[in-house]
Amino acid sequence: MTGRRLTSLLAYVTTATAGASLLTGCGVLPGTTGGSREPITVMTWAPDQTRATNMPGMPAMAQTFARWVNSQGGIEGHELRVLTCNEHNTATGAADCARRAVREKVVAVVGSYSQHGRAFMAPLEAAGIPYIGGYGISEDEFTSPLSYPVNGGQASLVAGHGMQLAASCRAVSLVRPDTLAGDKLPELLNSGLRKASHRGAVDIPAVEDAAEYTESASRAREEAGDEKGCVTAVLGERTQTFFDSFRRLPERADGGGGDGGAADGGEGDGSGGRADGVRISSVLGSVGQPVIDRTGGAHSPFEGAFVTGWYPEASDRSWAPMRKVVQDHAFADNRVDPADTGVQTTWIAYTVLKEVVASLDSDEITATQIAYALDRGARIDTGGLTPALRWKYEDLLGAPGFPRIINREVTFQVVREGRLVAQRPGFVDVGETVLSAP
Question: Distance between CA atoms of 204 and 206, rounded to whole angstroms?
């Protein structure tokens, strides 16, 4: 081989090797996307197989979301890796999950459920890990500067529920958990009742994980009376157990009105939702479409019940994208019920994550980058499932105990023919009501 030909060949090989390095060693050419961007690792936790509230659909929805987004090439070329953790409904379990998130170097905890905010937020804050779209059950989710709630939490639900009940209930009994979180609920409900100059509800604390609630149910019925009386229970997964005990109460000595007398009108709320002359009600998360289906559908004891939620009813067309993802990527996982509020919250939380990561357009995503983007005013469109979400200082409600509420909207629903449907169209702003709670 001549010297000139050898020199030309070496030049060709050197150029080809450099090109290959540019394409493979460094990931992608500048300005392009591909599968070689750094993966993103996040965590979703929730209690499962406990005696109290269980939310297995939340981590299952997170895994479904990851399968879907990775089938599309990831989030702007970033593979989404989801770790899940069972926090067992205990402070120790919640802290263990948070410490594992730190060890695994996750960039965010997304769409999770735990009432033990003090246990899990401290490890996350120390590591600078944002908590995006928690269920809204713990106070710390609405006080920590690294928490980015997508709904108004139980505070907005219960305050809004008081507004919903005020127009139709002469007297209200509230059955709620005898816990620190439960202690907040009476004043929140009363703040909504007071909007209509209604007297406050009778507060009935109950054991969170009881096997039956006959004593609490009997007192709730007695305090509500039999003329436009209402009994509302906010006991998470045990709400069904409470209303089963309520339904089994013996009839009153005076006849009491039976089970299913005509409704009082409200706002076109239909009929039913009564046991022994008393109207029943709750909030989503304690009662939802899956519970109604399990307890008899149109023949369920919840027929006619008032329910306050964060989001549009499950049949609303705004949920169509989520239902399509569940259909295509949840496979046979029956934990992922599109009508479950935990599943819906997780979908919205991961929508926030997806939009924020896409806005960063970076080869490597860190927890600090995500928190900074959210604090700087990244605006998230959830397709009508919530108002546009943004966490700048001026967007925060600033309510005592719940300063980081940004989504102050709820929906009023009612159970008709076994389905949760809108009692009134659109969202109801409960911001001023939450602010007025002591």
Answer: 6
Q: In the structure encoding, which two tokens stand for residue 174, read together?
A: 């509230």
Helix H, strand E, coil C: the string for the chain is: CCHHHHHHHHHHHHHHHHHHHHHHHCCCCCCCCCCCCCCEEEEEEECCCCCCCCCCHHHHHHHHHHHHHHHCCCECCECEEEEEEECCCCHHHHHHHHHHHHHCCCCEEECCCCCCHHHHHHHHHHHCCCEECCCCCCHHHHCCCCEECCCCHHHHHHHHHHHHHHCCCCEEEEEEECCHHHHCHHHHHHHHHHHHCCCCCEEEEECCCCCCCHHHHHHHHHHHCCCCEEEEECCHHHHHHHHHHHHCCCCCCCCCCCCCCCCCCCCCCCCCCEECCEEEEEEECCECHHHHHHCCHHHCCCCCCEEEECCCCCCCHHHHHHHHHHHHHCCCCCCCCCCCHHHHHHHHHHHHHHHHHHHHCCCCCCHHHHHHHHHCCCCECCCCCCCCECCCHHHCCCECCECCCCCCEEEEEEEECCEEEECCCCCEECHHHHHHCC
Is 286 within 8 Å of 52 (Cβ atoms)?
no
Residues comprising the chain, all counted: 438
Interval 255-287: pLDDT, tens: 544 443 333 344 444 444 555 579 999 999 899
Question: What global pTM score does this model have?
Answer: 0.84
Structure tokens at 86: 């069972």
pLDDT digits (tens, 9 = 90+) for 194-244: 987 788 999 999 998 899 999 999 999 999 997 889 999 999 889 999 999
Q: Which amino acid, 201?
A: A
Helices 57-71 and 320-329, packing angle to 10 deg: 80
Scan for tokens 């090439």, then name that residue: 73
CA distances from 118 to 35, 125, 383 (A): 38, 11, 32
